[in-house]
Every structure is written in structure tokens, then in C-alpha cells.
Amino acid sequence: HRHLVDVDVFSEEDLYTVLEEAVRMEEVMKRPLKKVPALRGKVVANMFFEPSTRTRTSFELAEKFLSADVINWSSSGSSTAKGESLEDTAKTIEAMGVDAVVVRNKQVGTPEYLIKKLNGACVMNAGDGARAHPTQALLDLYTAWRHFGSLRGRKMAIVGDILHSRVARSDIYAFSKVGVQVVVSGPRSLVPLHVFDLAEYEPDVRKAVKGADMVYALRIQRERQEEGLFPSIDEYHNQWGINEEVLSHASKEAVVMHPGPMNRGVEIDSFVADGDRCLVLDQVKSGVAVRMALLFLYLAGGGDR
Ligand code: CP
């Protein structure tokens, strides 16, 4: 693949190619001198039109560890604030000799739009609207794979606001592709029909997590919801919040995951978020290795490390 739009074009072999490359990148990160020259002479522009902590900083670190030159662009403080279009902004950045554009935008389809408008720079999707977040799915897969050793035959329960979640869409695809049974749970009003192709829906969270190896809590995305959230935050917390009692229905070895940022006391209790079974910080750490692997595979063609 020349661009990274979503994981739904990845075969199982493609997914494992990224995971195995990420293992090698994790080794690089353990060295006293973390930098390798793989992307020396390449320029990467990180263009974030939506807020981000994890994705933006881990892409930047990954690019720097691979010795790329990095431009960090954000909509505030740039000419976008003066009304410049996405097309003109992207072409302006590309004219400076950029090899790759990492983009996050509220608008679904931004990566494909840029692929059409740009003259060949590699486009990487860092989250487009509620549709896709491929690098998050890959780092989630990597975290779970490193933890369990093998994933085929395991069960994952994804709990929360599936409707507005680009993470859920990409995760459901990636985990089911490698043989994980995916069950989603949450209020029916927050579960879109498309999930039923690849995942079961179980409204009762205790039944959904029964025997699950991975319990994946999603953030309630208040910023993407219309007025009058249903159910209310309190109702949501009481029925679907992940706490120790809910977890007691999962497998004894079950782990808890969350893409961040977390709403503590809403979709996840602090006791669980800070507990031994929570892999949230492993996910963050994996994010750097996985993004290094992706940048390496897409920009250096898997050549010298
Ligand atoms: N998981 C995730 O995408 O986090 P950020 O919004 O902080 O990048």
C-alpha cells in the first residue's frame, strides 16, 4: 500500500508484517542511542486539524527516532485560521518538499482527498472523523499480541460509544481479521448498524464481557454528539461503566484497554484505570514503535534500518 487510509485493506499477513516490524523498532527504542538513520533526508509534516496528545506526539517521536525532518503544523496559529482551504494548505506544505503528510481531521475522507490533491506524498491517516484510526488499531493489536503471545480464538469486548468511534471501527476490523471474537456493548443509540458485519452486539455489559480476554472501554465523545445526550452520563456510568465488579465477569487473565483520553468515573473507574490489569500506558508506548514501523515500511520501503 502507498498510503495509510484504514486497516480494512490489510490482510492478516499485512497486519503481522507491521507488528513484527514494530518488535524490531521496540528494540531500537531500548538502545542508549534511540535514533536510526532510516529516514534521514525525508521530511514528514504532521497536520492536526483536531486536538491530539498521544497520536501527535508519538508520530513526532517516531519520526525523530527514524531521523526524519519534521514539520508540526496545527490549524491554530496557521493560515487556516485566516480561511485557507485544506487543499491550498496541503499543496503549500507539499511544495516545500514533504515526503509524507500525517493528517487528523474532523471530516471523514480527508486522507483520500489529500491523496488526490497531492503530487505523490505519502498520506497517513491519524484519525478522520468517526470513520477510521488505523494507527490506533495497529497499536492496540500490537499491545494485545505482545501481552498474550497469540490472539486467534480470544475474545474482546468493546464497550461504549461505538457510533462516534473511529477507533472502534478500525479495531473491530483489525482484531476480527486475526481471529479474535469481537462483541460490542453500550446503549443501542450509540451502536451503528455496520458493526454487525464483524461483531456481535450485547447490550448487557456483564454478558458482553463474560469470558473476555480484552475489555476495551471507549470514551463517550460528548463533542461529537447532538444536544441531549442519551443516555445521560450518570445513566451511562451506572449501566456500562467498567469497574471491578464488571471485570469479575471477564476471564481471570483479562486486561483492560482504552485509547485515551479517558473520562475517569464515566466509562472507566479510576481503580480499574490505575490497576495492574490496565494496559493503557503499554498502548501509549506501543504507539511509538508501531508508528516507527509504519513510517519505515511506507517511506523507506522496508530497506536499511
Ligand atoms: N488515542 C488517541 O487518538 O489519542 P489522542 O486523541 O490524544 O491522539
Automatic annotation (TrEMBL):
Residues involved in carbamoyl phosphate binding: R54, T55, R104, H133, Q136, G260, P261
Pathway: Pyrimidine metabolism; UMP biosynthesis via de novo pathway; (S)-dihydroorotate from bicarbonate: step 2/3
Reactions catalysed: carbamoyl phosphate + L-aspartate = N-carbamoyl-L-aspartate + phosphate + H(+)
Taxonomy, superkingdom: Bacteria
Keyword set, alphabetical order: Pyrimidine biosynthesis, Transferase
E.C. numbers: 2.1.3.2
Residues covered by the Aspartate/ornithine carbamoyltransferase carbamoyl-P binding domain: 2-144
Residue ranges of every copy of the Aspartate/ornithine carbamoyltransferase Asp/Orn-binding domain listed in the record: 153-296
Residues holding L-aspartate: K82, R166, R219
Similarity comment text for this entry: Belongs to the aspartate/ornithine carbamoyltransferase superfamily. ATCase family.
Protein function: Catalyzes the condensation of carbamoyl phosphate and aspartate to form carbamoyl aspartate and inorganic phosphate, the committed step in the de novo pyrimidine nucleotide biosynthesis pathway.
NCBIfam families: asp_carb_tr (TIGR00670), PRK00856.1 (NF002032)
Subunit structure and binding partners: Heterododecamer (2C3:3R2) of six catalytic PyrB chains organized as two trimers (C3), and six regulatory PyrI chains organized as three dimers (R2).
Protein name per the record: Aspartate carbamoyltransferase
Higher taxonomy: Bacteria, Thermotogati, Synergistota, Synergistia, Synergistales
Encoding gene (name): pyrB
